[in-house]
Amino acid sequence: MSASTDPVYHSTVTTPDGDQVAKAPLTPADDQRDKIILAKPPEVIPVLFIPGIMGSNLKKKNGSVAWRPPNLDARGAADAIAQLFEYLFKSTIKRAKELNTEEAQIDPRGPIDAGSSALNENILRARRWGTVLRSSYHPFMGKLQNHLNNLSRFIPAAGKAEWQGWAAGDGQDEPTQWGAPQGAALTPEEFKHAANYQFDVWAGGYNWLQGNRDSGEAIRDYIEQVILPFYNEGKAVEVQGGGEQPNRIQRAKPVRPLAEKVIVVTHSMGGLVSRSLTEIHCCDKVLGVVHGVQPATGAPDTYKRMRAGADGIAQLFLGRNAADLTAILTQAQGGMELLPTADYNGGRPWLKARDQAAPPGEDWGDGLSLPLNGDPYEDIYKSDKWYGLVPKNNEKLMNPAGTAENEGAGSGGDMSGGRNPRGPLEDLIDKVKQFHDDIRGKYKAPTYVFYGAQGARDPEKDKGGLFADKNRFSFGQVVWEGRGGGQIQANAAIADDDQNGEIELTNGVKLRIAKADAPGDGTVPWQSGIAPEDKSGVEMVFSHGHQGRSCEHNQKFGYDHQDAYNDERALYATLYAIVKIAQSAQWHKKKESQ
After folding, report:
1. What is the mean pLDDT of residues 293-319?
2. According to the 3-state scheme, what is the secondary structure of 133-198?
3. How many Cα atoms occupy the beta-carbon half-sphere of 408 within 13 Å?
4. Domain ranges across the chain
5. Which of 349, 399, 421, 495 is the most buried (most CB within 10 A)?
6. pLDDT tens string 66-88
7. What whole-number distance in Å separates Cα of residue 118 and Cα of residue 478?
8. Residue 154: Cβ within 10 Å count
9. In this structure, what is the dihedral angle of CA atoms 141, 144, 149, 153, given to the nearest 10 degrees?
């Protein structure tokens, strides 16, 4: 008989199909030690990550790539540079044709970064990780997969579980140390309850060109027809990857449901998709939601981009000028739904004109503090005035039908095909308004939120490197500024427009869009990020950045909107929220059906 009486422990490993198995080799008959398999629980809480606008890979119906966002990290540097040159010489017409809502489909063939997930590419591709931007999302998703499944470890000598990894480190902190206004640290009982489940991270790429109402419906079908049946019915999941053979995973059909609901984690516009999922389509398969940097009530930056293009290097990929953005967004309802809602910043005006010679804070002009009475749809988005979203001079930039007869037109050419473009634009704005109305102030209970609240860099707290951003201001309002005093009038026309934010009116007044001045993440201002704070169903809101809540882990410079999930503050807020949300999961207690 073996001299040792200590039990033998065997840990499980993940199979290519995602099952947990353990190898327990046979031992001699005289070895009477206990053989114990440290198995993960069979019950699962799927975690579905929904990315922001332009964060999903798209292809055309013929299979060619329509949109593959550049991975701006060391691994994707060569590809990003190649794309930079490609976009640099791509005409507005070609960009608009490639990003045609009716032609676009989700593309699962994007690159995969397994990171710290400890899972192979077959599993991750089958879970649709290839549908979302690798550099912005995969490192975070890998950490989520790892931390949530390593909350505790059974210690034989002590006869009990002990916390490990994140649960033993940052997970012991109170949320007030990470930007929340109040709240207690997670308890041992809460960790223990969450550890009853295996957490599997899935990706939910979507066609961000279509309306978020439609994307919410597509995500509902994905949850109810793909994710949950995979665990509960033994239904196979097949996703086409980069090779000829699809990536396929399948588990044996269980005797009882192993995954009843999912937890949804969102980035940016993904939050609007999620609210469509739960509040419009009433999906009851969602246990709770975590929103990251969501433009909850829209972002004035969308208006700014429609009139002036994106900023910095992003303009080469997202749109160099008004021609690029107008051509794309006027045929992409999802993007237009990022415009400020009627209740943005409490309905206060956010589009203004300012005389640089006037005292600070004084607006000037006739009716140039908009919207009036909280109606941006009529006052701004449908208006053909010089300050409108698409002024009369820019009507020629719209291409709602994607007609082929204008293939030879250059940037800024007439893409309307001879039709009156304002009719389709007004119909689109009506749909945007209806969507805004349908989700206004509505959130799935429980919901957790985090947002960026960074303004200028504080050199005393975070010096940054040679190429560090000086600030992280966002457009809390859009201000056309110039000199001219009372000469400016709302009914003046545009005499000249460089499509990058500088115009001259027919009365001689020259105006330019002033720089952003609201704390945020460079895209979403704090006014929109904090908007869910007092709404029903919202449990906690984390504010990150120097202008956010002062706390131990908020001393470093605020994060950029696109890369928010690569920040440790976003990771803490998400993990804390998921453990909290998991407390309402009870299917691990259900007995096997007879």
Report:
1. 84
2. CHHHHHHHHHHHHHHHCCCEEEECCCCEEEECHHHHCHHHCCHHHHCCCCCCCCCHHHHHHHCCCE
3. 1
4. 8-38, 44-50+110-294+526-589, 300-439+478-513
5. 399
6. 888 777 666 755 565 555 555 55
7. 46
8. 13
9. 140
Three-state SS at 575: helix
Strands 198-203 and 44-50: parallel
The answer to whether residue 15 scores a pLDDT higher than 70 is no
Q: Tokens 């599997």 identify what position?
A: 200
* Interatomic CA distance for residues 536 and 445, integer angstroms: 8
pLDDT at residue 28, rounded to an integer:
74
| 78 contact partners, CB below 8 Å, separation of at least 6 | none
Distance CA 533, CA 450 (A): 10
Q: Which residues have CB under 8 Å from 117's CB, separation 6+?
A: 124, 141, 142, 145, 146, 201
CA nearest neighbour of 406 among 94, 25, 168:
94
The number of angstroms, rounded, from the C-alpha of 401 to the middle of its chain's C-alpha atoms is: 28
Task: Quote the CA–CA distance of 467 and 192 in Å, as a whole number.
Answer: 44
The neighbour count for residue 237, using CB atoms within 10 Å, is 21
- 399 pLDDT band, cuts 50/70/90, is low
Tokens of 460: 């005393």
What pLDDT shows up at residue 10? 47
Q: Is 245 exposed, middle or buried (0-12, 13-18, 19+ CB in 10 A)?
A: exposed
Q: What is the DSSP letter of 313?
A: T
Per-residue model confidence (pLDDT) at position 146: 96
Give the global pTM: 0.89
**Taking the CA atoms of the chain, what radius of gyration do you get in angstroms?**
26
Nearest Cα to Cα of residue 417 among 403, 432, 436, 398: 403
How many residues does the structure list for the chain?
Answer: 594
Coil/strand/helix, residue 132? strand
**Other CB atoms within 10 A of residue 445 CB:** 13
- Of 354-363, 383-392, 485-494, 540-549, the one with minimum mean pLDDT is 354-363
List, in sequence order, every beta strand (DSSP E) within 446-577. 447-452, 478-482, 494-497, 502-505, 510-513, 538-544
DSSP 22-42: -------TT----EEEEPPPS
SS (H, E, C) 191-237: HHHHCCCEEEEEECCCCCCCCHHHHHHHHHHHHHHHHHHHHHCCCCE
Phi-psi region of 363 (alpha: psi -120 to 50; beta: other; left: phi over 0): beta
∠ CA 11-13-19 to the nearest 5 degrees?
125
519, 510, 509, 567: which is closest to 546 by C-alpha? Answer: 519
| pLDDT one-digit tens code per residue, 426-443 | 999 999 999 999 999 999
Q: What is the DSSP letter of 332?
A: -
Distance between CA atoms of 321 and 329, rounded to whole angstroms? Answer: 12
- Residue 534 CB burial class (10 angstroms; 0-12, 13-18, ≥19): exposed
